[in-house]
Amino acid sequence: MAPNTEPVIGATERTFEIVELVDELGVARVSEVAEEIDIPTSTAHGYFQSLTQLGYLQRTSEGYRLGIRFLGLGESARRDRELYHLAQHEIDRLAED
Fold first, then answer.
1. pLDDT at 1 (0 to 100)
2. Nearest Cα to 63, choosing from 43, 33, 41?
3. Arithmetic mean of pLDDT, 51-72
4. Which residues, 6 or more positions from 57, have their beta carbon under 8 angstroms from its beta carbon?
5. Facing residues of 57 across strands?
C-alpha cells in the first residue's frame, strides 16, 4: 500500500507528538515537553490544558500523565482487532470448505 500523501494538519500532528512524548516519559512537565519539541512553553501549556479538559491528560503533583480517556479508546481498538481476527479465522475456514 502506498504511503498516504495527504497533508497532515499541524495542530493534530503536534497534539499526538505531545501525547506520545508524555507516554514515553510517564510523567511530564509542560516546560520539559516544550523544550523537547521546540515550541514556546505558553503554546505547550495550551495543548496541555485542552488535553486535560478533554480527559486525555491528567495533572498530578509531579506533572502530567496520560488520562483515563485513552483506556476506552484502547479497549475499542483491542476489541476491534479481536473481532477482525475471529472473523478472518472463520472466513478462512469457510473458504477451505
1. 43
2. 33
3. 94
4. 19, 22, 48, 51, 64, 65, 66, 67
5. 66
Query: Does pTM top 0.70 for this prediction?
Result: yes
Sign of the CA dihedral with 39 first, then 44, 46, and 51 last: positive
Helices (H), the chain: 10-25, 30-37, 41-53, 69-96
76 vs 42, more confident:
42
Partnered with residue 67 across adjacent β-strands are: none
Backbone angle region of 38, left / alpha / beta, with phi > 0 → left and psi within -120 to 50 → alpha: left
DSSP state of 7: P
| Grid coordinates given for 94 | 469457510
